[in-house]
């Protein structure tokens, strides 16, 4: 009887020890689970989502895993919201910064007004004989009025060719610059008879005129170039700039003048001062002769 009681107590002691060991194992396992739950979920989410994505598309590439890994696994909405940072603000657009600089085309469209241009270049010029080239610009004067003005300015020529008058629409500003060039600089001698930069009235119907004296230096078919520019102030570069509004190439034929015709042409062009100088010389000679005769008569009467 005593032996049976001792064996029963031994068995009970073994079960008690097993129960204690089980409790210790459960306690340790629970602590490990709690420490795993306290870790940052954001560090595990990309890997889990990446593995799921790799399994779905069958690639398992690193790039695909990083792109798709931004989606967290299932969980509470509050935990997801706290784990995902807010998106960065969008980059500033061009409208937020300074406006782009204006191009010459923008300046022409924004600051210049429509106007009229007309010029006359003779079809034929004589070598070593000056010819005149005229150009007029107006904001409000009609093209027909500009043509009449040019016709009156060439009326003094022997055979003016009004078909050589060119009219065109251009953009104008208060300050305009006109220049005349020779395509071959050795073929002409060009002297401006007016300032290159002149004021153009944008309110009334007045016109502004440029003129040049052109002397062909060699015979042949040549070309003259007429350029007109609007002078405006460019605030982007803080300086005045010339915006070309017209560029025309005009063919001209230079011919050699025969000597008799050259003398006659010289007389026609300079007869005014020749007559004036000749009259003055004639008067001086007459006075000298009269003075000499008077002195001679005085000497004879004294004898």
How is this structure best described in words?
This protein has 303 residues and is an alpha+beta fold. It has a domain at 104-254: Immunoglobulin-like, CATH 2.60.40. Helices cover 43% and strands 28% of the residues. The protein contains seven helices and ten strands. It is rod-shaped and about 195 Å long. Residues 34-109 are annotated as: Disordered. Keywords: Membrane, Transmembrane, Transmembrane helix. Residues 84-103 have a biased composition (Pro residues). The chain crosses the membrane at residues 272-290.
Helix-strand string: HHHHHEEEHEEEEEEEH
Number of strands: 10
Mean pLDDT: 76
Q: Measured on Cα atoms, how large is the radius of gyration?
A: 52 Å
The helix content is 40-55%
Largest sheet: 5 strands, antiparallel
CATH class of one domain, please?
A: Mainly Beta
What's the CATH architecture of one domain? Sandwich
Return the CATH topology of one domain. Immunoglobulin-like
The CATH superfamily of one domain turns out to be: Immunoglobulins
Uncertain parts: 1-5, 35-82
How does the overall form come out from the CA principal axes? Answer: rod-shaped
Output the strand order for the largest sheet: 4-1-3-8-6
Strand content bin: 25-35%
Which class of secondary structure composition applies to the elements? alpha+beta
Number of helices: 7
Q: First CA to last CA: what distance?
A: 210 Å
Keywords: Membrane, Transmembrane, Transmembrane helix
